[in-house]
Amino acid sequence: MRKLIVFNHVSLDGCFVDASSSMQWAYTGSDDPEFETFTAENASGDSVLVFGRVTYQLMASYWPTPAALKQNPTVAAGMNRTPKVVFSRILTHATWNNTLLLHGNPVEEIRKLKSEPGPDLCILGSGTIVAQLAPARLINEFQFVLDPIALGAGRSLFGGIPAPLNFTLTQSRAFSNGKVFLRYTPA
Amino acid sequence: MRKLIVFNHVSLDGCFVDASSSMQWAYTGSDDPEFETFTAENASGDSVLVFGRVTYQLMASYWPTPAALKQNPTVAAGMNRTPKVVFSRILTHATWNNTLLLHGNPVEEIRKLKSEPGPDLCILGSGTIVAQLAPARLINEFQFVLDPIALGAGRSLFGGIPAPLNFTLTQSRAFSNGKVFLRYTPA
Questions:
Q1: In this predicted model, what pLDDT tens digit does every residue of B138-159 receive, in sequence order?
Q2: Does domain A4-186 fall into CATH 3.40.430.10?
Q3: 3-state class of A138 per DSSP?
Q4: Within 10 Å of residue B31's Cβ, how many Cβ atoms?
Q5: What pTM does this model have?
Q6: Distance from CA of A51 to the nearest CA of B (A)
Q7: How far is CA B74 from CA B69, B80, B82, B123, in A?
Q8: Domain B1-16+48-153 bears CATH identifier 3.10.560.10
């Protein structure tokens, strides 16, 4: 059965995006070679990326642009090539390369996708999707990079979950740029 | 000069209290002897405890009671004996043993307290106070126990800060109960 993982940067106050829906704050400290090597290796599978509409549109507005191809050629090429799934009730088509647009209920669609053969699935950002799939116990693993910043405002990955969720810590690794990688499975 | 530190449990979604203002979720996993030894040693200074009104009243309603003295005799005795400071514009007196009630602006009062001789100061809970003192750069160290739980709702320690705050990670230690102790200084 395909695994579904979540990968996200999180601030000390629990946000994955700031009040302007930006993830820019998470890109500081990228000059730590040990951290760079770790994240490159960690991301080097061939997962299918899974998004909610908001995160999808944010990423689709950046990665295919000449600016992204110039600033981050390797990541941009990977993001553009990788198969993507986006959940939305309102989008009528998805223009970013290699995207499957799904209109159905994310819990049912993911249950179906997980039962089919194929590579693992990885959610980036997409708090609304995480908050629906986590209580349904469809997420096999949560990977967080805890950034040494407090944003003061923003969105939590777990806003709207009907009850607290407990996790089992399976890995923690601190980097000299102050980021801490944390890996959890549902308890 | 006296140091001011913050010590708090934090959920994965950045809350120090849940939607019912409870910290009860943070007390799970206390059967890990290594974690218990660590927290007992870490708390064994003779700091003055600093509170906002809400956290103060929460703690004052528990620690002096027969239930607390029975369930947690050592911690209760320590909490009741330790000198405490509470900030409030509305309280007229503070009934919990050994409490100094301050009506002034927390930034000015803490600046004054820090310039006087005496033991270090330690804030527990008290998000409103942290969110005022942190941007004023009056907090020398932040100690967090990151608990393996997502609450879904609650209060952040940094709600209302006027701009993001960056930190330097100085220690991280994971425990087998899934809690991660994190120590930061302001960057």
A1: 999 999 999 999 999 999 999 9
A2: yes
A3: coil
A4: 8
A5: 0.94
A6: 20
A7: 8, 10, 12, 20
A8: no
